[in-house]
Amino acid sequence: MDGSVFALSLLPLVSPDPDPGFVVTGMVLDPTGAPVAVAVVSAAPDAGGEGASVKTGADGRFVLKLDPGGYTVKVSAPGFAGGSHRIVAAGQGSTSLDFALSLSKLRETVSVESTGDYSVGASPARPAPRHRSATCRNPSP
Q: What is the pTM (predicted TM-score) of this model?
């Protein structure tokens, strides 16, 4: 068997996908312009059904492959307010979509519980001080 024929028979297995569809590439950045790693980028189709979802790399970059149609592309990351963009994916082609996230607003809740009895605006009742007295007796020699 000729080695060149064998190599040619493997060519279809390693050739690139002839129809990559529509590709969305982009970056997710924080307010300072630094990349946001492990942010979730998801594309939900307008027509419903299953979309696509990926996580950003350490460099904040992502790649989504989409079927034709309209999508809402959303990004979320802990500590940041989410963002979204609407796109229309053609049969083939690509677009670049970058997200600059802002910090999420802090929400703090303080809850105070007490089993004691007190009134708002009044001084707490103070128990009367307890006095103890002690007498020392030294025996005489």
A: 0.62
